[in-house]
Specification:
two-stranded antiparallel ribbon; 27 helices; five-stranded mixed sheet; about 675 residues; binds zinc ion
């Protein structure tokens, strides 16, 4: 019987992933066959008797590896959303093999000599701009991954990469296991303060855990944060908070601290081997920031006013607690609870009042509407496409001329074996090189299902995240380039967050709120007075948000600049935070023992700063709209599509931004958006 993962995708819309046929047992043989095929393809290119040209080398490589793309993408979907025990076993076996395979391609000397030859001749061989950029990136990718090393160093590098792959898998499987735990509450009194929607969700979650009649607070962000915001039970807030911040840090068999220490040490060794001062220097070389120093400078410019703001926020909260006669000092498990009280007191708005207007399905419709207004993309549901779980739904995306563009898969609900958080995933990248293909992207999140048939209400923050991930999806869908390697979101991570963070701004536009923020019971649209209050409160709690994020980003960068200091993870985290002047009422958004951005792969390592970097662009870019008269200005939207959403990695991101805005982005818009004073002296 043929392995369902291997053949070209068939079915409607130019072929779709055969999710309905996938069995966990199919992954290993399919990955092995696909790696073997890819290695054979690369060998064929390397041994081509014809002299190296762009067509017979770079383009031939773009044509190759297609089976591995297909298999690898479905493997990735299982890894993030269907990661049961059987699949985890496959990962543990296959991840080091995949790492070894990637090194084998990079270390193919004949292949690299051909790439280097095409790269050397790129200016005089009649290539267009996109082809030149592809050649440059391909050369950099190989050179930076060790293609120039001698045989001994190559072997050492490959050993390091395989060991790292094993450690990343262990790390993320440990976090998943800790997030699969829950605090079970037995009595109604333990729910004091929780709004009905949270009670329903907790009851549903308990039922799914075979504890009917009880309530389960899952150890994931989307369950923990609302609990910490509303629960009047300080003792339970503390327990929920402690379980959440201790993921991967419980001294048991799932503890991640030793794993992290080894990861950081190996990354340091690898960077040295590749000729870089540190892992951070290696990772940032191809980014917009270019150097750890430039990234750090930006972080520090925002860190100082953010810490100052936290002190003001804590003073406000302490005053509320004192007035209540609570007899407490504000502790980390009190922050969200009292912040909510201050917000209510200062701005007369609380999330509880806003949430009934934020229904998941209406917000999804709102995102689709924004995509139509900004990018002329139009969504219609389809039923003829297989999915990997009954919760997943699919839409076809067409352009204004009715031309089929893409498929959008939406997997919104939390379940066991699914990673927490929210993310976008590309199942198939846009390209024009090997024929027109249907771009396929997905959005994934972890909303807790409420009572069957009742609308799912989400917090303002979760609504922002929904728009954020949809921004990534639109970045993938809008792509219009020739080569798949340059397509869509295949850009550096400090640029990839720009389109997504930009799209967040449209949630708060009156057009969206008036039309889509409708009350779950009455259907009435959100009152203007409440919209005004939300606007006024938009700079509220920025101290907390920025310190929570920046402490994580600064610890990440310092750790990857000085791996020698990070052998004891607990001590490194404590010492770095104390040196930074971390307010004692707060913790990092992601403590090191569960910081998946850094340790489940290389991707955001020494790169958590990227969100801030990209936000300098998104804050500045949104002002282009407001300056032109509004968030739906057609002229600015056209430029946005042309220079940002459609270009993928086919142009240098700094140049693309300049073409859109007419200048570089400064830090001023970023500071304005946070309600911080801009620095007196411009940063160099
Ligand atoms: Zn993002």
């Amino acid at each position: 019987m043929e392995n369902p993962l291997i053949p070209k995708w068939t079915g409607p819309h130019g072929g779709v992933p055969p999710f309905d046929k996938v069995k966990v047992a199919s992954f290993k043989p399919a990955l092995e066959a696909a790696m073997a095929e890819c290695l054979a393809e690369m060998d064929r290119i390397a041994n081509d008797p014809a002299p190296p040209t762009f067509a017979n080398t770079i383009e031939a490589m773009e044509k190759g590896g297609r089976m591995l793309d297909r298999v690898g993408n479905i493997y990735g979907v299982w890894s993030s959303t269907m990661r049961n025990a059987a699949f985890q076993e496959v990962e543990r076996e296959m991840e080091p093999k995949l790492a070894a395979f990637r090194d084998e391609v990079v270390q193919n000397e004949k292949l690299f000599r051909r790439i280097a030859a095409v790269y050397g001749a790129r200016e005089k061989s009649g290539l267009d701009a996109e082809q030149k950029r592809l050649t440059w990136l391909k050369y950099q990718d190989f050179a930076r991954s060790g293609a120039k090393l001698d045989a001994v160093a190559k072997k050492k590098l490959s050993d390091i990469n395989q060991r790292l792959a094993t450690l990343y898998t262990q790390f993320s499987q440990n976090v998943l296991a800790d997030e699969n735990t829950a605090l079970i509450l037995d009595s109604e009194t333990e729910l004091a303060g929780l709004p009905q929607s949270l009670r329903d969700a907790a009851a549903q979650a308990a039922k799914e855990r075979d504890q009917p009649g009880k309530w389960a607070i899952l150890n994931t962000r989307s369950s923990v944060e609302p609990f910490l915001t509303y629960s009047q039970r300080r003792d339970l807030r503390k327990r929920v908070w402690e379980a959440f911040v201790s993921r991967g840090d419980n001294g048991n068999e799932r503890d991640n601290k030793k794993i992290i220490a080894e990861i950081v040490k190996l990354r340091g060794e690898r960077a040295k081997l590749l000729g870089y001062a540190s892992h951070a220097h290696w990772r940032l070389e191809m980014s917009m920031a270019k150097t750890p120093e430039r990234a750090t400078q930006l972080m520090e410019a925002v860190w100082r006013p953010a810490v100052k703001r936290v002190a003001e926020e804590v003073a406000d909260m302490q005053a509320v607690a004192d007035k209540e006669g609570a007899g407490i000092r504000i502790e980390p498990w009190d922050y969200r609870y009292y912040a909510e009280k201050v917000r209510k007191a200062k701005y007369d708005v609380d999330d509880n009042e806003v949430m009934p207007y934020l229904q998941l399905e209406n917000l999804r419709e709102a995102m689709f509407w924004v995509a139509g207004e900004l990018l002329d993309l139009h969504f219609a549901p389809v039923k003829d496409v297989p999915v990997y779980h009954p919760d997943v739904r699919v839409w076809e995306v067409k352009d204004g001329a009715g031309r089929h563009v893409a498929l959008f898969y939406f997997d919104p609900y939390a379940r066991a074996d699914k990673s927490s958080g929210a993310w976008m995933n590309a199942y198939r990248n846009q390209e024009r090189f090997d024929g027109e293909v249907t771009t396929i992207v997905s959005n994934n999140s972890n909303f807790v299902k409420g009572k069957p048939g009742e609308p799912i209400l989400v917090s303002w923050d979760d609504a922002v995240t929904l728009f954020h991930e949809f921004g990534h999806a639109l970045h993938g869908i809008s792509s219009s380039v020739r080569y798949p390697s340059l397509s869509g979101t295949n850009v550096d991570r400090d640029y990839v967050e720009f389109p997504s963070q930009l799209l967040e701004h449209w949630l708060a536009t009156p057009e969206v709120l008036n039309k889509y923020a409708r009350h779950c019971k009455t259907g009435a649209s959100i009152p203007q007075s409440l919209v005004k209050k939300i606007e006024r409160a938009s700079k509220f709690n920025k101290g907390f948000e920025n310190v929570e994020y920046l402490s994580s980003a600064l610890v990440d960068m310092r750790m990857h600049l000085a791996p020698d200091k990070a052998s004891d993870i607990t001590e490194f985290e404590r010492g770095t935070l104390s040196a930074l002047g971390m307010p004692k009422e707060m913790v990092m958004r992601h403590r090191l023992p569960h910081f998946g951005h850094l340790f489940s792969s290389d991707s955001y390592s020494a790169g958590y700063y990227s969100y801030l970097w990209a936000d300098t662009l998104s804050a500045d870019a949104f002002e282009a709209f407001t300056e032109a008269g509004g968030a739906y200005d057609k002229g600015v939207a056209r430029k946005l599509r042309e220079y940002v959403f459609s270009t993928g990695n086919s142009v240098d991101p700094a140049e693309g931004y300049r073409a859109f805005r007419g200048r570089d982005a400064g830090i001023e818009a970023l500071m304005r958006r946070r309600g911080f004073a801009p620095p007196l002296h411009r940063q160099q």
